[in-house]
Known about the structure:
Elements: H1 3-21, H2 27-64, E1 68-76, E2 96-104, E3 113-117, H3 132-141, E4 144-148, H4 158-162, H5 170-184, E5 188-198, H6 200-211, E6 218-222, H7 228-234, H8 237-244, H9 257-262, E7 276-281, H10 289-301, E8 307-311, H11 326-343, H12 352-360
Parallel strand pairs: 3-4, 3-5, 5-6, 6-7, 7-8
Antiparallel strand pairs: 1-2, 2-4
Helix pairs in contact: 1-2, 3-12
Pfam family, one: Peptidase_S9
Organism: Fermentimonas caenicola
Protein name: Peptidase S9 prolyl oligopeptidase
Amino acid sequence: xxxxxxxxxxxxxxxxxxxxxxxxxxxxxxxxxxxxxxxxxxxxxxxxxxxxxxxxxxxxxxxxxxxxxxxxxxxxxxxxxxxxxxxxxxxxxxxxxxxxxxxxxxxxxxxxxxxxxxxxxxxxxxxxxxxxxxxxxxxxxxxxxxxxxxxxxxxxxxxxxxxxxxxxxxxxxxxxxxxxxxxxxxxxxxxxxxxxxxxxxxxxxxxxxxxxxxxxxxxxxxxxxxxxxxxxxxxxxxxxxxxxxxxxxxxxxxxxxxxxxxxxxxxxxxxxxxxxxxxxxxxxxxxxxxxxxxxxxxxxxxxxxxxxxxxxxxxxxxxxxxxxxxxxxxxxxxxxxxxxxxxxxxxxxxxxxxxxxxxxxx
Length: 362
């Protein structure tokens, strides 16, 4: 039974219960019952997400266990940027979050290996086996990979979901995961660290390389969210609702433009000091090409040296270089070759065919 059908069944059961127990409802009591029903369904949604995440975690070990040591660790980062309750004496407690660690099984424990920081995409999403083939590509070249389930991720309950800090302290979580690996694994070379992300993960890649350039050797940002003013102007109200939610910013961009400016990579374009590669696609139906072009043009205004490519109607739209077609993997090969120049992995790919065999077995 899929998630939507399960929610419908629960909703029907609750409605039947209310109907059977309340022969006659006044307008006020009906509204109250509906509000209770909505809250019940919303709470169940988070429980379903937890179950989904636990199942997907098993798939990581099942599908990647032949080539990688896999771990999932619990770390701490900065507190919530805005306390939910000003009277909460624990409001300054650092938030806890999970992070995935992938280490090639064939490593030499006496040597040092490059690190890939791989933040997941999605405004409310998580690091799922959607990235399985990509992680396998990194592992086969001898990279160590870390991916933070930063605040706002799904699969960890309502509190984590509502700790969302889009463009803000989610970046602290990603940095904390980077630092954890370097501080605790002596096989990691702290001078060879790259960050790779797509979409929201691409936004985090930009924010990391622009705000903490001294911590990274290079960055790849695929179809990155780049400018919230541009993005909100081109998307419908359902997108802005993520930001105006009371547990997030709680204000619109018109009410508090500076806050949205603070959360936009374009604001920090002048800081670029490390190699950066940006990919975008003209038929991207999520992060529109115009938004990414704004990032590109802003970097040019500051006379920054970086690489980029605008793909023309590449198949797959928003996910054009993350899917499993030959066209997509050939494009992804160019990303690996960019990273290779700055991170020097021990076993770099020599051809697209070698990369596909590493990821897919054939």
